[in-house]
Amino acid sequence: MKRIRMVILSLWYYEDSWLRSFARSLLMVLGFLFLGCAAALAFGGFFVILLCKNYQDFFQETFLSLPGWLAVVAALVLLPTGILALSISTKGSRYQQGAFMHLLLILLCLQVSSAVLAQLYSIQMASDLKNTMGHLFYRYNGTHSQAPGSSAVDVVQQRLQCCGVQNYTDWLKTASTSWHLLAENARVPESCCKEKYSVCRGELHQLEQLFQEGCLRKLEDQLHFTVLYLFCCYAMLIVIELLAGACNGILMRHQPFHDLRILDSSTF
Question: Residues 8-26: pLDDT tens digits?
Answer without folding.
Answer: 445 444 445 667 788 888 9
